[in-house]
């Protein structure tokens, strides 16, 4: 086994694929490598209809990778695929260079980005779990125990066994520390629940602009940059909207094929999304693959138990689209469901934020319409529904029917107005949403 180099920033990228290779897959992998601090020496694609169980790619492609690494001086091989411990060791043995798979690469980026105590603990735990499967003969100092001849008998415990035991001990320590942090976070979350403020979580594909929007809405100074996984640690702030206040949480960005170890390690961060009342699903409007990104985020949300939460799609970065304007695509005409309502904004330029706040306030039922409502005797069903919603403040009866003083969320009022006999409610609605 070769001695692993401590260097490793001049990288050769390998993109395995089966069938047609999508351009955005390779582009995202390149961005991940650069986000980790690597300079790109070369990029090779490798078609693998049936993965080689020992080296993933074919032997001919492996020779090509070795030649390209020698020619470019690459000291690191990055593979955009999950590698088994055996595949990783075999590739390193033949290529005589460090080999890191997709999971290891994302873990490295997370290690660089983590800022809070909790985030650092979560990253270290994920790294150790990933490393635990790669201890077997992975390094030259992990000698196997020998015995049977004088002078060749090994110690009572091999270095490999010692490392594995110490690693497991550290994993247990991290788990206990994270459990304490989770208890504190749960107590804070319960305090927010007692305040009865609606909870809104910002979710979306990495680099969609979540932290930039969070800062614009809250006046906070969360770290934001044009790079993948710019921020990992959840940040929570209270913000004012038309009709009331909400609690807004910024969360870690999602990415295709997010490693399961990371999903498990960042359970407290992702719980901000899972336990929210409403999701602002941020989308890079200038991304040509934005519909695929939406589907990938929805897939992760389903995996963490947040797939059924109501959403508002926020198409950000319209400043990068020629002729794009702030607008609100309501539910009418959208071929999906109510979650596909869309607002188009630019968080960087603070463009469209009043519209977003108004729509969000409406969706959360914070915006109300109030006034006097005259119902004829034939509107008994509508009167009953208003009482069920507990929006009737006072009521009087005369020969013409009922005279009610009501205060009703605009969202509920629009539903009632759209139904049969909803004309009295329709007359109460403003022609346009109040701006904020």
Automatic annotation (TrEMBL):
Cited SUPFAM superfamilies: EF-G C-terminal domain-like, P-loop containing nucleoside triphosphate hydrolases
Subcellular localization(s) per the UniProt record: Cytoplasm
Predominant localisation class: cytoplasm
GO molecular function: GTP binding; GTPase activity; guanosine tetraphosphate binding; metal ion binding; ribosome binding
GO CC annotation terms, alphabetical: cytoplasm
Cofactor(s) it depends on: Mg(2+)
Binding of Mg(2+), residues: 211, 231
Binding positions (GTP): 204-211, 229-233, 250-253, 316-319, 346-348
Hflx-type G domain boundaries: 198-368
Coiled-coil blocks: 157-191
InterPro entries attached to this UniProt entry: EFG_III/V, G_HFLX_dom, GTP-bd, GTP-bd_M, GTPase_HflX, GTPase_HflX_N, GTPase_HflX_N_sf, P-loop_NTPase
Alphabetically ordered keywords of this record: Coiled coil, Cytoplasm, GTP-binding, Magnesium, Metal-binding, Nucleotide-binding
Keyword Translocase: no
Role played: GTPase that associates with the 50S ribosomal subunit and may have a role during protein synthesis or ribosome biogenesis.
Assembly mode: Monomer. Associates with the 50S ribosomal subunit.
Family: Belongs to the TRAFAC class OBG-HflX-like GTPase superfamily. HflX GTPase family.
Protein name as annotated: GTPase HflX
Organism: Stenotrophomonas rhizophila
